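Q: I'm a student working through a structural biology exercise. My instructor gave each of us a protein and asked us to get a predicted structure, then write a short paragraph describing it. Mine is Protein N-acetyltransferase, RimJ/RimL family. I'm not confident about reading structure output yet, so if you can add a plain explanation after the tokens, that would really help. Here is the sequence I was given:
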Amino acid sequence: MPDDAPIILAAAGEPLMERQFAARIDSLAAAEEWIDLLTTRRHADSAYSFAVLHEGVPAGNVTVSGVERRHLTGWISYWTREEARGRGLATRACRAVAEFAFAELGLFRLELAHRLDNPASCRVATAAGFLTEGVERARLLYDGVRYDTETHARLATD
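A: Happy to help. First, here is the predicted structure for Protein N-acetyltransferase, RimJ/RimL family. I'll explain a few features afterward.
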């Protein structure tokens, strides 16, 4: 929702969060554009994003993107603001979006990945029922440094 733009702007300014957004969010206008992009993707049936709430206030985001109808697959991503971490919010949101993707979108396979140096994200993935499938070497490039990622997947039959 457009009213969430100040929260998105604040989240984007937190340490380690700059990598969670495809574009730099450094103004309310940029945060509003990001929210508009999420709305456009939903209308195009390519991605479905949801706010993660903590005490009724948006404290994160969980998305199923890359919705592919031929093979019935999607890609899960999630983040939470610093003050909301460690409360199980991302795990519950990830589980809920997976169930939505299977039941409402008719998807069969959901994937996600996290950097190997992000054990908290790994805990979210495994607690949400995503099984580890393997490591992709040097998958990501940030500031001239390559990072390995660990891929997880969950099937509708799991």
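A: Here are two points you could use in your paragraph. The chain has a mean pLDDT of 93. The longest strand covers residues 57-68. It's a good idea to check both against the output above yourself.
Q: Great, thank you!
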